[in-house]
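Please, structure for the following, as tokens.
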Amino acid sequence: MIRACPVSELPEGEALRLEGSVPVSVFHAEGGYYALDDTCSHQDASLADGWIEGCYVECPLHAARFDLRTGVPNCLPAKNAVRTYPVVVADGVIYVDTRVRQDVA
């Protein structure tokens, strides 16, 4: 598990990029916490820099939208899903389990 940040440091509607061998973004949306591969599957852009609306993040480069719950895009130009990761909140701290990649078929 990777420690992301305290809950108090990630307000609703915000995202945080975690560096690592595979960059991961953590989002606080719709009252929950979600983690996805940070890089848009269409082109090399950070999803943490995108716009969050409901349970979706819009890529800042070409406006592809990804479902934070599943990683599946719901519009072009992205056609491929991004991986999601389990998020755990314990003692007021957000953790991401990057060992468990949840690929979408």
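The mean pLDDT is 94. The domain at 2-96 is CATH 2.102.10.10 (Rieske Iron-sulfur Protein).
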